[in-house]
Amino acid sequence: MWQTILDTLRSEFSDAPDAEQVTRILTRLLLAALLGGVLGYEREHKGKAAGIRTHMLVAMGSALFVLVPQLGGMAVGDLSRVIQGIVTGIGFLGAGAIIKNRSEEDVQGLTTAAGIWMTAAIGVACGLGRESTAVLSTLLALLVLAVLPRLVGRDRT
């Protein structure tokens, strides 16, 4: 009986058959969390509702959505459908952050929505194993969020 239980548990956790695979999964998910957290910290520091936890979860979730099918052997072309689903889903999440007030020019939350969208893209890059692209994208996003408002003299984000 115990042997059957152990065999069942072993087969249930067989998606990470060796240390190399576990390291790959851990690296991609942790990097997604870290990079999402960096962007989330910047937003939280500015008092925005979508902060560290939101950005970390969006990045990790996006990474996981592409990582699992990829490790399961899904063809790269088929992954495009998964990515399309992520983009659509995050679009709905971002839409919930946008508030339009009475005046046509008074719209709030656009930068937050765009930041969540960018964070999902960074998570996808991490999940696909494009770590350099994810890090460079995060640095560029930080430049846009933190430095650009100072250069143009406007920090309404």
How is this structure best described in words?
The chain has 157 residues and is mainly alpha-helical. It has one domain. Helix content is 75%, strand content 3%. It contains six helices and two strands, in the order H-H-H-H-E-E-H-H. The protein has helices at 2-12, 19-45, 52-71, 76-95, 110-127, 131-152, and strands spanning 99-100, 107-108. The protein has a two-stranded antiparallel sheet. Strand 1 (99-100) and strand 2 form a beta hairpin. This is Protein MgtC. It is found in: Cell inner membrane; Cell membrane. Its main location: membrane. Residues 29-151 form the MgtC/SapB/SrpB/YhiD N-terminal domain.
Give the helix/strand layout.
Elements lengths: L1 H11 L6 H27 L6 H20 L4 H20 L3 E2 L6 E2 L1 H18 L3 H22 L5
Count of domains: 1
What is the radius of gyration?
19 Å
Structural class: mainly alpha
The count of helical stretches stands at 6
Provide mean pLDDT, rounded.
Answer: 88
Major sheet description: 2 strands, antiparallel
| SSE ordering | HHHHEEHH
Low-confidence stretches: none
- Count of distinct strands: 2
Overall geometric form: elongated
Beta-strand content? under 5%
How far apart lie the N and C ends? 61 Å
Concise structural overview:
This protein has helices at 2-12, 19-45, 52-71, 76-95, 110-127, 131-152; strands spanning 99-100, 107-108. It has 157 residues and is mostly helical. The mean pLDDT is 88.
